[in-house]
Amino acid sequence: MSENPKKAPALSPRWKKITLTVLKWTWIPLLCLAALFTGLSIGYAVIGQGDFKDVWDPGTWRHLFDLVFAEN
Questions:
Q1: What is the largest CA-CA distance in the chain?
Q2: Strands (E), the chain
Q3: What's the rounded Cα separation, in Å, for the pair 37 and 57?
Q4: Are 40 and 55 in contact (CB under 8 A)?
Q5: What proportion of the chain, given as a percentage, has pLDDT over 70?
Q6: Exposed, middle or buried: residue 69 (CB in 10 Å: 0-12, 13-18, 19+)?
Q7: Would the pTM count as exceeding 0.85?
Q8: Beta carbons within 8 Å of 8's beta carbon, 6+ residues apart
Q9: Which residues, in sequence order, are CB contacts of 41 under 8 Å at separation 6+?
Q10: Which portions of the chain are predicted below pLDDT 70?
Q11: Count of CB atoms within 10 A of residue 72's CB?
């Protein structure tokens, strides 16, 4: 028999496994949300030459909704 028995690898703490699992399942949706917010900001403020703060105003989107779905 060998004098140096193989040691079992140390298990990582439970919180590391939970954190990695959560990150594995949420990083793509988080990147999609970041891209959405970036695109809204650039599209409204830079391309549309509007005020950057108006992107986050619900009244702006209510007005846009009314324009798109207005009945002649």
A1: 89
A2: none
A3: 13
A4: yes
A5: 83
A6: exposed
A7: no
A8: none
A9: 52, 55
A10: 1-5, 8-12, 72
A11: 2
Residue 42's CB is within 10 A of a number of other CB atoms, namely: 13
Q: Give dist(CA 2, CA 42) in Å, integer.
A: 66
Write down the residue that tokens 């988080």 correspond to: 30
Place of tokens 């549309």: 48
Question: What is the 8-class DSSP label of residue 47?
Answer: I
Please report, as a single letter, which amino acid is at residue 65.
F
**What's the rounded Cα separation, in Å, for the pair 58 and 17?**
39
**CA-to-CA dists, residue 43 to 8, 25, 28, 47, 67, angstroms:** 55, 29, 22, 5, 18
